[in-house]
Design brief:
There is one protein chain. The chain has 455 residues and is an alpha/beta fold. The chain has 2 domains: 2-154 and 177-213 and 267-290 and 438-454, 3-Layer(aba) Sandwich (Rossmann fold), CATH 3.40.50.720; 307-428, no CATH class. Helix content is 53%, strand content 12%. The protein contains 19 helices and 13 strands. The protein has helices at residues 11-22, 51-60, 81-99, 116-120, 122-135, 155-165, 184-196, 215-225, 238-248, 258-266, 275-279, 286-292, 307-330, 337-343, 348-370, 377-395, 410-428, 432-442, 444-454; strands at 2-6, 26-31, 40-42, 65-68, 103-107, 140-146, 149-150, 168-172, 178-179, 182-183, 203-207, 213-214, 232-236. It has a 7-stranded parallel beta sheet with strand order 3-2-1-4-5-6-11, with helices on both faces. A two-stranded parallel sheet has the order 7-10. A two-stranded parallel sheet has the order 8-13. Strand 1 (2-6), helix 1 (11-22) and strand 2 (26-31) form a beta-alpha-beta unit. The two termini are 22 Å apart.
């Protein structure tokens, strides 16, 4: 079978191309920068093309079936939803009907529908227009509506891996939005199975992976795959997340915007998951898929320190806090702490109270550093160092130009704390590879299929 794959260089398109070729089919690569040839075709939906022209091209290339994988998450000056998702594919579908193409598979998105929320989303609405136009044509056509797609070359997966690698992870609300990610290899396998089946495939198929999980749980799976331990979670109000998404639209990225936040709020779990029926088995869970194709973050902040080095740094920080607490408590006059507090506006009894509070905080931080610190200990220490430094700089500006650098020395202290914070989870995550291996053994079939697809 000769199959035109539009968007063949994207995440889903590459997987579909590999799946088709592995099963002996001939692929006509359709991409914006593809050269015109026997097995390649330039496809740029931003340039209007009459259905009759599409008919002639499809017939000249002897195309039996078409898979449309073209999609963008954010519009730009060079690419609009109206052309890329709607008008361009519709021209192709009409041309395919004129050319007598046997079958068409359209990769759409979960959440597409005629409800008010879907119609209000420019992304989902543009997909709906193409889906409806395809369904109205005299074609044996299947519309695939997958949940989040993860795997090699997935832009959203790279974003989630980046967010998951941070020691402090912000959550939209409490991160309870439900999702059911599906691996791109299994999405490609479903597309190929539909092309190959003898019976008509006409219909709309909602697709999800092997497990439904919350947004927070999803980032936890990514963190496990990166061999990182527990992070510090920071719930953010949704209005603040929408404001951040609005600001991010001006940055050179193609994933985080107000539309994606709105779709995340709706959740992405199929009402009737067709993936098990179409695959003939249970699809892989997120953890299994990430174990086979490890995630790659856009900015890798992981740090790995040899245990002796990490221990030395941690004990030195503990000594700093404990020494400061003891000197302050035992020698309040000789150490000059009461004079410093008076300069900051804390005199008499108020100075004593603040001194006791500072000693307690410093002593507690020192004791916590003697053991394996919890995730919240690191930002608490960083906040304490910044608080002490700013307070001293504002009330005693001469310390900022002292040749001994009493305040400037806090800069390397902060750097050491950040380094230890980034490196500490790696030591806590030694069991993560063992968990992944155990999960793989308990789901041998889908795991093996993903390995075969990757090769």
């Amino acid at each position: 079978m000769r199959v035109l794959v539009c968007g063949a260089t994207g995440c889903v398109g590459q997987a579909v191309v590999n799946a088709l070729r592995s099963r002996g089919h001939t692929v006509v690569v359709g991409a914006r920068r593809a050269a015109q040839g026997r097995d390649s075709l330039p496809v740029d939906y931003m340039r209007p093309l009459e259905p009759a022209v599409w008919r002639d091209r499809l017939q000249a290339l002897l195309v039996d079936a078409v898979v449309n994988c073209v999609g963008i998450l954010m519009p730009s000056r060079a690419q609009s939803f109206e052309r890329v998702h709607s008008a361009g594919p519709i021209e192709l579908f009409r041309g395919a009907a004129l050319a007598g193409v046997r079958r068409v598979v359209q990769v759409s998105a979960l959440g597409v529908g005629d409800d008010a929320a879907s119609l209000a989303s420019p992304y989902l609405h543009s997909k709906l227009l193409a889906d409806d136009a395809l369904g109205a044509l005299p074609l044996d056509a299947a519309v695939l509506r997958p949940s989040l797609v993860f795997g090699p070359n997935s832009q959203s997966a790279a974003l989630f891996a980046t967010l998951a690698s941070l020691p402090l992870i912000s959550l939209p609300g409490r991160g309870r939005q439900m999702l059911q990610p599906i691996h791109v290899f299994e999405l490609a396998e479903i597309a190929v199975r539909l092309l190959e089946q003898a019976a008509p495939c006409r219909g709309v198929y909602e697709l999800g992976g092997g497990e439904a999980l919350s947004y927070r749980e999803m980032l936890g799976r990514y963190r496990d795959a990166l061999n990182l331990g527990a992070p510090l979670w920071l719930p953010l109000p949704m209005p603040l997340m929408r404001l951040g998404a609005w600001a991010a639209e001006a940055l050179p990225q193609k994933v985080f915007c107000r539309d994606t936040i709105a779709m995340l709020e709706r959740g992405s779990v199929p009402a009737d998951n067709a993936a098990p029926r179409l695959l003939g088995r249970a699809p892989s869970s997120l953890g299994h898929g990430l174990a086979v194709t490890p995630p790659h973050s856009l900015l890798d902040l992981r740090a790995v320190l040899p245990h002796p080095v990490a221990l030395m740094l941690r004990l030195s920080v503990a000594f700093m806090w404990l020494y400061t607490a003891l000197i302050t408590a035992l020698l309040p006059q000789a150490s000059g702490v009461l004079k410093l507090l008076a300069r900051c506006g804390f005199e008499g009894r108020a100075g004593i109270v603040v001194m006791i509070a500072s000693c307690t905080l410093n002593g507690a931080l020192g004791m916590l550093m003697l053991r394996r610190p919890a995730p919240w200990v690191w930002p608490l220490q960083i906040g304490a160092v910044l608080g002490y430094t700013v307070t001293a700089a504002l009330n005693m500006p001469e310390l900022t130009i002292d040749h001994c650098g009493p305040l400037v020395k806090n800069v390397p202290v902060l750097a050491v704390l950040v380094l230890l914070w980034l490196a500490q989870p790696a030591a806590d995550a030694r069991a993560a590879p063992l968990r992944s291996a155990a999960a793989a053994r308990s789901h041998r079939s889908p795991h093996r299929v993903l390995r075969n697809a990757r090769s």
